[in-house]
Amino acid sequence: MTELEQLFGACNIVAMVGWLLLVVVPHYRTPRLVAAVVIPLLLATVYLVLIATSFFGAEGGFGSLQDVARLFEQPVLLLAGWVHYLAFDLFIGAWETRDARRAGVPHLMVVPCLILTFMLGPIGLLAYLALRAWRAHDLDLVSS
């Protein structure tokens, strides 16, 4: 197993711990802090190191789809892209959890959105925002 594969596995495990904390114990301060801040910052640091050591001078870029494909043909930059997804998706999941708590959305209703955010990123965010909109409308109907 190469170092990159080991780092890939370690980042996946760390991100999975964050997701489990968000799903299982979202109402406790320390797990919430770990999932919402500590793990995304750790993943962001890994991303920074990968980018700082490998991005500049690499083939490809962001100017066209072909350039992006060429950029991600390099395993270290493919890993950097993956870590980018892990960090941002977890950060969004943590935001969904905090926002739901502030808005009074029951956690069990948020869990499917968290799973979607974990698996499919923007689709989970879209589902959460739809849930929030539906709940806000539902709350307006109840209060009038």
- Taking all residues together, what is the mean pLDDT? 93
The parts where pLDDT drops under 50 for at least 5 residues are none
Order of SSEs: HHHHHH
The helix content, as a percent range, equals over 70%
Q: Between the first and last Cα atoms, what is the distance in angstroms?
A: 62 Å
Question: Oligomerization state of this entry?
Answer: single chain
Q: State the shape.
A: globular
Total number of beta strands: 0
CA gyration radius, whole angstroms: 18 Å
Question: Structural class, judged by helices and strands?
Answer: mainly alpha
Largest sheet: none
| Count, helices | 6
Show the helix and strand layout.
Blueprint: H1 3-24, H2 29-54, H3 65-71, H4 75-103, H5 107-120, H6 122-143
Give me some keywords for this one.
mainly alpha, 6 helices, 144 residues
Provide a descriptive summary of the structure in words.
With 144 residues, the chain is mainly alpha-helical. Helices cover 83% and strands 0% of the residues. The protein has helices at residues 3-24, 29-54, 65-71, 75-103, 107-120, 122-143. Helix 1 (3-24) packs antiparallel against helix 2 (29-54), helix 1 (3-24) runs parallel beside helix 4 and helix 5 (107-120) packs antiparallel against helix 6. The termini are far apart.
Give a quick rundown of the structure:
The chain has helices spanning about 5-25, 30-55, 65-70, 75-105, 105-120, 120-144. By secondary structure, it is mainly α.
